[in-house]
Amino acid sequence: MGMTITEKIFAKASKKTRVAPGESVWLDVDVLMTHDVCGPPTIAIWKKEFGEKAKIWDKEKLVIFPDHYIFTKNTNANRNVDLLREFAREYDLPNYYDVGTERYKGVCHIALAEEGYNVPGTVLFGTDSHTCTSGAFGMFATGVGNTDAAFIMGTGKIWEKVPESIKFTFNGKMPEYITAKDLILQILGDITTDGATYRAMEFGGEAIGSMNMMERMTLTNMTIEAGGMNGIIAVDDVTRHYLNEIDVTQYEEFNSDEDAFYHSQYKYDVELMEPLVAKPHSPDNMDKVKNVEGTNLTKCYIGSCTGGKLTDFQFAAKLLLGQKVKVTTFIVPASTQIAKQLEAEAISGVSLKDIFTNAGCIIAESSCAACLGGPSDTIGRSVEGDVVISTTNRNFPGRMGSKLSQVYLASPLTVAASAISGEITDPRKFL
Amino acid sequence: MEKKIIGKAYVLGDNIDTDQIIPAEHLVYSTSDPEELKKYGHFALSSVPIEQAGLPFGGKPFIDGDNHKSKFNIIVGGSNFGCGSSREHAPLSLQVAGVKAVVAESYARIFYRNSVDGGFVIPFESSSKLNDKIKTGDDVEVDLESSKITNHSSGETYRLRPLGSVYDIVKSGGLFNYARENNMI
User: Are residues A153 and A261 in the same domain?
Assistant: First the structure.
């Protein structure tokens, strides 16, 4: 019996020749990532548990991105960033990206890719459920809590159960009105929010091959919404090109064997797919956009690790060029690099930034912002009575702020089309 | 490790996510300062929609008034308990509120790991759906040795799945204790 990519990486990281799903193994960790929400409690646990002996296993492998609660007057939130800064200074950490400096990056999962921490064949753990995003680079990446992270910080190791894999194959050529977000919403509708619990979700097929790294990251990003341990896409020329551009050249490529075992397999023809939404209050409450068209909106939101990448803004700008939004629309670039790209990239000679500004959108600074609600002064945060359509990842009660608001999740094309109309709108109307 | 957990049940629906358990805006309090820590208990389960709070009737907040302790110490949930974010503050806030055990049909992976590795609450999996059989406020008893939950209010007993491979970590009280007992750190 062959092995899947995920099983091969588990075998390598646990120094075994082969592993089988269900088996618990100790993995050697290549990178540990944390941020301002979970970093301080992780550090507190690490200090308490290791005591006098507390030592970071490898400073080069610890990466800290403050990104969640950055632009707020909340003193407790600011204190968390101060704690990270002090920790980085005390231990002379090389990979700390401080707020208010040139090094500030924005949302961790996107910054990991941009800064070259996503290396195929490696193992990355992070104190954030969307750490699975990095799996787009043919690596094992998953989220853990503070205790597990503290354990990794001191030892470089953690236990994990080898997951069974589910394979998702997307055939056909991507229609211009379909994005990776529609694909993952389709999967969530089909397998629900616990359909992949403790499992790896592997993506392949012609449509995946045609996607850039940012779109692939939208897919792997939301694997956690199906309960997945990780999402993974094998390395191909698109991956190699992205990595080469940022000088990542040393890595190991793994591919699933033809006779690898899969828990289940799903096949889709993207040419038959339609724009989708997840209705309140769950990411698996999937429906076709055309079935909820006309729903009145109070806010539109394009941002986060899921839907705030350059490609997401290119999709949105294509529709918003020369248009005016009818409802308050927030543009939140996931990273500071993407914020710069909004000025550099243009459609018909107009920069993306100008397209959004001219359309009447509000452009915010890079951070996680209202994707997860956050402190009361967070930009874009939902309030009682809001009906929001958003490119983010979760619409559980209260996720974006008030539990008395309603959130629809959709692609950047659908959100942009809806912003122009002031009500939920199928993007094909404007394409 | 206690052999029996006795107390009052608080019953919830399926897919109780970590934003409902502890809303993200509250993730700013210190987890080391004993006074600030109480806030996690106070806000535990505060984003559960009121009609879903304390089933079958709802309308029963988990925490009364300014308290940080709940009168309920065993949570009975449905499937996919603890889905969503990786915040360890979720099982922590249940622990601070006085919860000893959660009994649910299934769990999201990170919540389950956090509960076990951090030693916050014991996550038991029930063999069948229980959140339509046990009512909020029922007197229940979880027996760890025989893997059973008894509802003294109705007289019914139900089977729980054995803790299996995480039993040793639960018994030690968390990953660090387990690692020390096994000379791993």
Answer: yes
CA-CA distance, A152 to A154, in Å (whole number)? 5
We report the CATH number of the domain holding residue A75 as 3.30.499.10
Residue A315: per-residue pLDDT: 98
> Is B20 in Cβ contact with A396 (below 8 Å)?
yes
Q: Where are the beta strands (DSSP E) in A37-191?
A: 62-64, 123-126, 140-143, 157-161, 164-171
Distance CA A178, CA A272 (A): 10
Q: What confidence score (pLDDT) does residue B2 get?
A: 83
Q: Which residue of A has its CA nearest to B16?
A: A396
Q: What is the DSSP string of A32-44?
A: EEE-TTTHHHHHH
Chain A residues within 8 A of B114 when measuring between CB atoms: 144-148
Contact assessment for residue A66 and residue A36, using Cβ atoms and an 8 Å cutoff:
yes
Ranges under pLDDT 50 in chain A:
none
pLDDT at B39: 98
Instruction: Count other Cβ atoms within 10 Å, centred on residue A34.
Output: 29
Nearest chain A residue to B83 by CA: give it.
A227
Domains of chain B: 4-181 (3.20.19.10)
Do the chains contact at A193 and B47, CB–CB below 8 Å? no
Distance CA B82, CA A202 (A): 23
How close B119 gets to chain A, by Cα (Å)? 9
Same domain, A258 and A301: no
Are B10 and B74 contacting, i.e. CB atoms less than 8 angstroms apart? Answer: yes
Report how many domains make up chain A.
2
Q: What is the C-alpha to C-alpha distance for residues A208 and A127, in angstroms, rounded to an integer?
A: 27
What's the confidence (pLDDT) of residue A158? 97
Residue A99 and residue A194 in one domain: yes
Task: Please answer whether residues A139 and A122 qualify as being in contact, where contact means their C-beta atoms are separated by less than 8 angstroms.
Answer: yes
A136: domain range?
Answer: 5-268
B50, B13 contact by CB (below 8 A): no
Mutate to test the interface with A, among B83, B95, B181, B185 (most CBs of A within 10 A): B83
pLDDT of residue B1: 77
Alpha-carbon distance A294 to A407, whole Å? 15
A150 and A210 inside one domain: yes
Contact A129 B110 (CB under 8 A): yes
- d(CA A163, CA A228) in angstroms, rounded, equals 9
Same domain, A288 and A221: no
**CA-CA distance, A296 to A292, in Å (whole number)?**
10
Both tokens of A408, joined, read 């629809």
A229 touches B: beta carbon within 8 Å: yes
Query: Which 3 state secondary structure label does DSSP give A330?
Result: strand
% of chain B exceeding 90 in pLDDT: 97
Same domain for A220 and A290? Answer: no
> What ipTM is given for this predicted complex?
0.95
